[in-house]
Amino acid sequence: MPTYALITGASSGLGLALAEALARKGRNLILVARQREALESLACELSQRFGIEALFRVCDLAEPMRLTGLIQELEQGERHIDLLVNNAGIGTAGLFVEQDWGREQELIELNILALSRLCHAIGNSMVQHGGGQILNIASLAAFQPGPLMSNYFASKAYVLSLSEGLRHELAPYGVKVSVLCPGPVATPFFRNSLLRSEPLARHKLLADPEEVALLAVRGLEKNRAIIIPGWRNRLIPLLLRLAPRALVRHITAKTIRPLLPRQA
Ligand SMILES: NC(=O)c1ccc[n+]([C@@H]2O[C@H](COP(=O)([O-])OP(=O)(O)OC[C@H]3O[C@@H](n4cnc5c(N)ncnc54)[C@H](OP(=O)(O)O)[C@@H]3O)[C@@H](O)[C@H]2O)c1
């Protein structure tokens, strides 16, 4: 039976780069996101360039009913997913209490609930099949509280903690779980989260998505628990463990403030 890697949020940014990096390794793909045209042209391009099977499913993962439909289709279908890449995610920025609640809820539905349900459903199928691999995309944000992006940082802390817990739980069943924690990456994430990326670009702090994807795939092959691309980024969790928590909150707020739209 052919096996597939399912990648959420494959229509742009890091998800798109991960799809290409996995196709290069000869992986068949199931690409999931909301933008049909982007998914269709990517699936077509990757199957032609790398001779793999690339399918796509249009799904708003922040809509629980649509997610249920996707999970049912996957459970009833013949295709075995041996790699799940939970990449789809959004950010919000500014004072939490002033944000539109709908968008904050969407963040929780996507970054936390959809990721957890996919780990639950596909993880279960992997256990039945005696093995598989899950890669969840968190962020360096997972290691600290993030004033002015509180909900986003908290969602990534959840992803890191869930992934580490599942890694231990599922190891005896042959299911390997890794979590990717990138620093800032040059993707539409900033624009989509209404954040300015120029201050990061000016200081050359934005990583290339293709490079991050390559390191993620390498980390997966080595079955790394926590994959942090870039040596400078790898120092951050160590420093955060030593620094007083109040100082961490203060510095993080100071770092995020210049990224907010000017009127904020
Ligand atoms: N860029 C960074 O600096 C950075 C750093 C650390 C971690 N990350 C994480 O990396 C992951 C990928 O982000 P990115 O930087 O590549 O940003 P991006 O370019 O904005 O990509 C986000 C992806 O998620 C999909 N998506 C958004 N809402 C969705 C929904 N409701 N249902 C299904 N798919 C949805 C988008 O596709 P559609 O619009 O087609 O649905 C898109 O493919 C996220 O989890 C993000 O938190 C990013």
TrEMBL record:
<protein>
    <submittedName>
        <fullName>SDR family oxidoreductase</fullName>
    </submittedName>
</protein>
<dbReference type="InterPro" id="IPR036291">
    <property type="entry name" value="NAD(P)-bd_dom_sf"/>
</dbReference>
<dbReference type="GO" id="GO:0016020">
    <property type="term" value="C:membrane"/>
</dbReference>
<dbReference type="InterPro" id="IPR002347">
    <property type="entry name" value="SDR_fam"/>
</dbReference>
<feature type="domain" description="Ketoreductase">
    <location>
        <begin position="3"/>
        <end position="188"/>
    </location>
</feature>
<dbReference type="Pfam" id="PF00106">
    <property type="entry name" value="adh_short"/>
</dbReference>
<comment type="similarity">
    <text>Belongs to the short-chain dehydrogenases/reductases (SDR) family.</text>
</comment>
<dbReference type="InterPro" id="IPR057326">
    <property type="entry name" value="KR_dom"/>
</dbReference>
<keyword id="KW-0560">Oxidoreductase</keyword>
<dbReference type="GO" id="GO:0016491">
    <property type="term" value="F:oxidoreductase activity"/>
</dbReference>
